[in-house]
Amino acid sequence: MLRGFGARPARDGSERTSDPLPSLEGVIAHLRLLPPPPAAPGAGSGSCRGRSYDLLVIGGGSGGLACAKEAAQFGRKVAVMDYVEPSPQGTSWGLGGTCVNVGCIPKKLMHQAALLGSALKDAQHYGWNISQPVHHTWSVMAQGVQNYVKSLNWGHRVQLQEKKVKYFNIKGSFSDPHTVCGLTKAGKETVVTADNIVIATGGRPKYPMDVAGALEYGITSDDLFWLKESPGKTLVVGASYVSLECAGFLTGIGLDTTVMMRSVPLRGFDQQMASLVTEHMESYGTKFLKRCFPTKVEKLKSNRLQVTWKNADLDTEETDSFDTVMWAVGRAPDTKTLNLETVGVKTNSETGKIIVDASEATSVPHIYAVGDITEGRPELTPTAIAAGKLLAQRLFGQSSELMDYDNVPTTVFAPLEYGCVGLSEEAAVQRYGSDNIEVYHAFYKPLEFTVAERDATQCYMKMVCLREREQRILGLHFIGPNAGEVIQGFALGIKCGATYPQMMKTVGIHPTCAEEVTKLHITKRSGLDATVTGC
Ligand code: FAD
Ligand code: NDP
To answer: Which domain holds residue 219?
Structure first.
C-alpha cells in the first residue's frame, strides 16, 4: 500500500498548533508581535446575555472569511467560527476552507507539477540536455504544497487578528435564531450571540454509500492533497471538475491513472469542449472506463484494492486492482449539525442546500448564507468571495449592490486547460434557437507546440454569438495552454456586452494563443475547415 495519511494533525478537527512550519519564520515572528486576541465576549459563558457581535460568520472558507473581513472594515464587531471535521480517513487541516486546503490551491500546484513534466519533455526539443530517466517524487511535491497551504492557514489567522475579527475554532450549531453554540477543543461549551449570522459552511465530498467498501477503502480529494506518499496506481470515479483535474495531474506526474465515467464528462459544460478535454487526456495517458458503474471495493492480501464494476455497454462485470481508489462523485453540504430546522432556515430537501434570495437572505430575517452551501449558486471560490463581500457591504456599508451570478468565467485545469465564460453552444441553442445563433470556431496550434512536436489536435476555441445585427457574444470557450489566463481577460468584455464586430476590432497580441480569439471568422454553419493556417 503506497498511500499514507501522515498529514493527520488532529482527529478532533481542531487546528494544528505544534506542527513544524518550515519557511514560515516570518509569519510566526509577525504573529508573535501581535497582541493576544481579546477574550471573546459571551464566549464560554454557557448562557446568552445580550448579543455580543454585530456579525457572526459560521465557516471560515472563501465566502465566510471574505464576508467577516469586509464587515470588520466597517468597524463592526465580528466573529468567525471554523471547524474542520476530519475526513473518514482522518485527514484534517487549518483555517481557510476548501479552496485553500483541499481545493483550488493544492490542485493548481499539483497541476503545475504535471505541466512541468510536459515542459521537461518539450525542453529537450529546445536543446536542453536532461539526463534520463526523469522521475517525479510525490513526497517532495506534497511537502512543498502542504507547507505553502500551512502558510496560508497562518496568513488567514494573522489577517483575522489584524482586522480584530474574533476566531473560534469551534463547530457551530444554532440554539436559537441569534445564538450559536459549540464545544471548544477542551470540551468547554461556547455560546456566541449576534445580530446577524452568515452561514458559509461549504460542502464536503460525497461517498457512493451503495458501493460496498467505498467508505472503508476509498479516499476523496479531501485526502489526496495531504498524502505523504504517492497514491500509486489510482482509480478516480466520477467525470467532472474534481475527477478530471485530479486524474490529469496524477497522469502528468507519471502515475497509472484511470477515470471511471458513468455518463458524460463535465456535465453542464459545452459537450463538444468536454469531449475534447477527455480526448486529450486519453492521448496524454489517462485511461477511461466509459459507461461503467462501481459495485464494490475489497482489500486484497497484497493490500491493493480490488474494484468490481459493471460495464453498461457490454453488460459485463469487470475487475482490476489499484493502490488507491478516489471518489470524485460530487459534493454535499453538511447542514445536519447546524440545527437549521430549529431556527427555521429552509433548505432544499433534495440537495440539502440553503435556499437564499438574490440578497443571500435565508427564510429567517438576519440569517444569510453564501458560497457552496447555497442552492443554485456556482461552487467557485471567486463567487463565494464576491457574494460574501457584497453581503457585508449591504449589511454595514449602506450598499444595495447584489451579486451578479451571470457570465461567471471558470476553468477546468485538465492537462490541456479548458476555460469558458457564458453560455455553452447547447444552452445558446436551447435559449435562442439554432437559427438565431452563430458559432465561430478554430482549431489552432500554439506556437510553442511546433518545435516541441506536440500534438495540437484538441487545441480549439469557439465563440457563440447571437446572429442578429449586433451579434452579441453569448459564450466563449477555449481549450489550450493557460486557458484560465486567456478567458479571464475576455470575461470582462463579455460581461460588458461585447459583440462579434467589437471582438474583430480588437487587436491581437502576436504571437499568442489568445490572439486567435480576435481572428475567429469561420462559422460552423459554413462547414468550412476551421484549421488555422499560417502565422
Ligand atoms: P468552504 O471553503 O468549503 O468553507 C467552509 C468552511 O466551514 C470549512 O472550513 C468547513 O470546515 C467549515 N465548517 C463547516 N461546518 C461548520 C460548522 N458547523 N461550524 C464551523 N465551521 C464549519 N473553485 C475555484 O474557483 N477554482 C478552482 O480551481 C477550484 N478547484 C477546486 C478543487 C477541488 C478539488 C475542490 C473540492 C473544489 C474546488 N473549487 C474551486 C471550489 C471551491 O473550493 C469552493 O467553491 C469554495 O471553497 C467554497 O467556499 P465556501 O466559503 O462556500 O466554503
Ligand atoms: P460534480 O457534481 O460536478 O460531478 C460529479 C461527478 O461524479 C459527475 O461526473 C457524476 O456523473 C459522477 N457521479 C456521481 N455519482 C456517481 C456514482 N454514484 N458513481 C459514479 N459516478 C458518479 O462534482 P465535482 O466534485 O467534480 O465538483 C463539485 C464542484 O466543485 C463543481 O461544480 C465546481 O463548481 C467545483 N470545482 C471547481 C473547480 C474549478 O473551478 N476548476 C475544480 C473542482 C471543483 P453524472 O454526470 O453522470 O451525474
So the answer is: 214-329
